[in-house]
Amino acid sequence: MASCGGLSNFFLPRPGFANIGKTYEPVRLILSISSTRKHKCDVNATVGGIAPTTISGCPPQDFQEKFAKEYEQKIEEIRQVLQSKGEDDPSESLVLVDAIQRGGLSSHYEQEIGTILRKRYEASCSCTYGYYCLHDVSLFFRLLREHGLYISPDVFNNFKGKDGRFRRNLRQDIRGLMELYEAAQLSFQGELILDEAASFSSHLLRECLPEMDNDLSRIITGKLKYPYHKTIAKLTRKDFLQDLEGSNGWAKTLRELALMDLRKGQSVYQGELAQVSKWWNELGLAKEIKLARNQLLKWYTWSMSILIDDFSLSLQRVELTKSIAFVYLIDDIFDVVGTLDELTIFTEAVNKWEYAAIDMLPDYMKMCYRALLDTTNGIGHEIYKRHGYDPIDSLKTSWGSLCNAYLMEAKWFASGDLPTAAKYLENGKVTTGAYVVLVHLFFLSGLGNGGGIGLTDVSRLASSVATILRLWDDLGSAKDEHQDGRDGSYTECYRNDHRGLSMAQARDHVIDAITSEWKSLNKEC
């Protein structure tokens, strides 16, 4: 068991770090689902466990009232346990906080969780009693960083031997190794000890797999494949809840609450999907541009997953879905429909953002252009009604930038001359659609307008998100969408820059670059 005697020097606040953590939780969720371009979204034709068709009939009113009452009772039961553990049992309180988060229920307890973590954080500046084992230190480290409280990775030096390496006898601590691997996912650039921790823990866990029973083997495999930091709790909580353990019966109550939360979510998401389906069908764009993808469920899954933690954000999810639909639609116009001359005219029209520009467009583009302006102006009006300002200038600028980048890409590949990998990536970050989505999300969330955070404050964060999406997406190919359009990839450009490089070497380079950007994103969030 490691001594924690030296830990008091490692819990040091970083100015500004605590203020930004929870604000940008959606950006992590964006990276937990497939990219906007090319890759199929694994939603299996359901949202929140229900098919996209309308379910006939509604539960009787008395059932709804009884359900709502029981749901609130369960929320309060867990709240009481959380408050009690927060006072009496530091280690168990962190386990409960983690379980609440993994169960997708943290939105109900943000104040209580914040109080517990700040209290433990402040106490750890002078005393770290109770955090002696690898599991507890790793869990404490991860929770603090997730909530914007800086903790030095040097806390893990306590688990190294005289040779400066993690001790081999930690192989016996499977629970600790799993949590160490989870903690290592929140590393920053230059934190070599966390790189070592990730390599050490993943190697030992894989090494132990043949010795484990089926249940533990399944849990370990799941942790390695889907670490919590890079997944969406509400979409992965089934397996976690199945294996959940807790003292004094809170695990049972938490499981029951999570199941009720799932049921409530199904009703909310079904209603939202019905709204966007009605909007999309009335637009008629799927019939007008037949070569473009018609994947409304996939587009809604993006916005649902990004804003999954709060059921009250229905308007934001619906409006964001509309923007995402146009990212896909315009992408397909550039990739598989339009000629270079037509794309040039369309790009000029989007940058003008004037209804009069419709007359300069080919017939098949006119409906799309009008719908883009109508929809985006409508989103700006909704934001104005809710938050008192109209961000239309920022919204239309994001669409102009997207089309400019699409056109640049189309010119490159029409000419047959590949750009350098660096030029491709800079342009490719825009063509992911991430900037458009994040700008709309920023204003739909009520940010900006003198609220202390501006678009320039999140530019580095947005760049990291877009870079990860572009590189991750380019590991695949347009064949995933069964398309036959003009599309390149970063790996192709990189190999063109480095003649003789194998595809495997290029892919390794891309994976390393993605890892590096995750570290930058961790620091920004």
Explain how this protein is built.
The structure is a single chain. The protein is an all-alpha fold. The protein is 63% helix and 0% strand. The protein contains 22 helices and no strands. Helix 10 runs antiparallel to helix 11 and helix 20 (459-474) packs antiparallel against helix 22 (503-524). Residues 1-24, 33-57 and 478-486 have low confidence and may be disordered.
List keywords for this structure.
Farnesyl Diphosphate Synthase; zinc; globular; zinc ion binding; 63% helix; mainly alpha; Tricyclene synthase Oc15, chloroplastic-like isoform X1; Znf_SWIM; single chain; lyase; 22 helices; Glycosyltransferase; 525 residues
The fraction of residues in strands falls at under 5%
Low-pLDDT stretches are: 1-24, 33-57, 478-486
The helical percent reads 55-70%
CATH superfamily of the largest domain: Terpene synthase, N-terminal domain
List the helices and strands and how they pair.
Elements lengths: L16 H4 L4 H6 L30 H28 L1 H13 L7 H15 L9 H13 L27 H11 L7 H17 L5 H12 L7 H10 L7 H34 L1 H4 L7 H11 L7 H24 L2 H13 L10 H25 L4 H24 L5 H11 L2 H11 L14 H16 L15 H8 L5 H22 L1
Helix pairs in contact: 3-4, 3-11, 4-5, 4-6, 6-7, 7-8, 10-11, 11-13, 11-14, 13-14, 14-16, 14-17, 14-19, 15-17, 17-18, 17-19, 18-20, 18-21, 20-22, 21-22
